[in-house]
Amino acid sequence: MSNSPKGTLGQDVAMLILRDGASPRRQWTLRGSVIVIGRSDDCHVVVDDRQASRHHARITQTADGYVLEDLSSKNGTFLNGQPLTAPTVLKDGDEVGIAFAAKLAFVDAGATAPLLFQEELGPLLRMDTEAKRVWVAGKELDPPLSLAQYRLLELLYRHRSRVVSREEVVLAVWAEDEAEGVSEQAIDALARRLRERLTEVDPNHQYVVTVRGHGFRLEYAAD
Q1: To bridge 56 with a disulfide, which of 38, 113, 115, 217 should be the other Cys (CB 3.0-4.6 Å)?
Q2: CA–CA separation, 184 vs 205, rounded Å?
Q3: Measured on CA atoms in the order 179, 184, 190, 195, is the torsion positive or negative?
Q4: Which of 116, 193, 181 is nearest to 147 (CA)?
Q5: Which phi and psi (to 5°) does residue 116 adopt?
Q6: Partners of 62 in beta bridges
């Protein structure tokens, strides 16, 4: 059986796995046609290191495969240890270096992820939205989340492939007659309480990520 991740229609998709470096995540499925790697919060793959440029490199899905290119970064992009000087089609097992800040392994669509990384590939958060149940790292949340916390988590879970705006959070969590008076502080406090509840069960992963200037994103969730 293939261990490769599946897209929304069940098709295999390529992925990146963090081998070395600092990032809020350990792996990324390459679902979009363009994936930007860099230090900025608006990148698809965030490398938390000053050696990485804000928008450092880009992977574009083409008819020939996934093409890696450097975005005029200050400290360079490397492919299998060599400086990347022109856009290049990635092959399964290639190592992408972001300056000297991070190393990412490329796993091609349909390929089996290396056994070394199997532990990292399993999603750690799962929801049954019909039964209103939540599991974190294999453990069901007990006591359950508050209603507001659950609504926020369900919103993030349903839209886990993207950043959810604060406006969407307000509409999903608060009643229509309350929504107009909801402050930024109230939204942040709710996200913090949800984050703390999840951390109680699994302190090793940050599930609810604040994307400055944009909203919130859910990490490590089952597709």
Answers
A1: 38
A2: 25
A3: positive
A4: 193
A5: -55, -30
A6: 65
| Calculated CA dihedral for residues 164, 169, 171, 177, nearest 10 degrees | -160
Neighbours of 23 (CB within 10 A): 19
Q: What is the largest CA-CA distance in the chain?
A: 59
pLDDT given for residue 76 in this prediction = 97
Amino acid (one-letter) located at 35: I
Rounded Cα distance, 194 and 204, in Å: 15
pLDDT at residue number 21: 86
Taking the C-alpha atoms of residue 15 and residue 185, their distance in angstroms, rounded to an integer, is 36
Q: What is the DSSP letter of 28?
A: E
**Nearest partner of 105 among 45, 167, 158, judged by Cα:** 45
**Residue 196 host element (H or E):** helix 184-201
- CA dist 104 and 91 (Å) reads 13
pLDDT tens column, 78-116:
999 999 999 999 999 899 999 999 999 998 876 545 544
Given this model, what pLDDT does residue 113 score?
Answer: 52
pLDDT at residue 223 in the model: 61
- Lookup: tokens for 141: 């949340």
pLDDT digits (tens, 9 = 90+) for 175-211: 877 778 899 999 999 999 999 999 998 887 888 988 8
Structural tokens at position 11: 């098709």
Q: Which of 116, 121, 99 is nearest to 13 (CA)?
A: 121
